[in-house]
Amino acid sequence: MGKGYSQLTLDERIEIFRLQSEGRSHREIGRMMGRHHTTIMRELGRNSLRSGYKPAMANHMAWARCKRTSRLERLRPLRDHVVDRLAMGWSPEQIAGRLRREKAEHSISHESIYRFIFSKAGRALKLHRYLARRKAKRGLRYFKARGHAVPSAMSIVNRPQAIEERKEFGNIVSACRSR
């Protein structure tokens, strides 16, 4: 059991089936295969049918889950509804909220709408033009590099003694810069 992770192969799924049918526990199967026991548990939970675990079907289900597209790409009526509302000037938040409020047949989150707008299919339809900022690329949303708020700022440990004593009223910044 290493630090890296790789998807289960069909051979490994067949081995899981064989060991499980022998009555082995998840921990034993994991130990014998060099996998964590939770990997075995998740595999059996996700890819089992009512009739039990079938390795070939489990492999197909895992592959289909990887290849699954977004709801807006799969459901034409939902996509048409979202595109129409975007063209009318609605924001993705308004569209998602209205679908939820009306308890529509298909609902979707605003984040999924944004992901579709900036996906390859959305860029082909030029959906970004309907957004308020009309940017073609989404850009970084988290962990933006920030500079110092005040470039010539002085550390609080270096402030003058007069400020520490609080005897005079005045501009602290000018007192700090005079030192």
Overview of this structure, please?
- The protein is mostly helical and about 180 residues long.
- It is about 55% helix and about 0% strand.
- The chain folds into 3 domains: about 10-65; about 70-130, no CATH class; about 150-179, no CATH class.
- The chain contains 11 helices and 2 strands, in the order H-H-H-E-E-H-H-H-H-H-H-H-H.
- A two-stranded antiparallel sheet has the order 1-2.
- Helix 2 (about 25-35) packs across helix 3 (about 35-45) and helix 7 packs across helix 8 (about 110-115).
- The longest helix is centred in the middle third of the chain and has 13 residues, at about 55-65.
- The protein starts with 9 loop residues before the first helix and ends with a helix.
Question: Layout of SSEs?
Answer:
Blueprint: H1 10-21, H2 26-33, H3 37-46, E1 48-49, E2 52-53, H4 55-67, H5 71-74, H6 76-87, H7 92-101, H8 110-117, H9 120-124, H10 161-165, H11 172-178
Helix pairs in contact: 1-4, 2-3, 7-8
The domain count comes to 3
Average pLDDT over all residues: 81
Give helix % range: 40-55%
Poorly predicted tracts of residues: none
Question: What's the overall geometry?
Answer: flat
Distance between the terminal alpha carbons, to the nearest Å? 60 Å
Strands of the largest sheet, in order across it? 1-2
Tally of DSSP helical segments: 11
Strand fraction equals under 5%
The major sheet is characterized as:
2 strands, antiparallel
**Secondary structure: number of strands:** 2
> Structural class, please?
mainly alpha
Q: What is the C-alpha radius of gyration, as a whole number of Å? A: 29 Å
The helix/strand series, from N terminus to C terminus, equals HHHEEHHHHHHHH
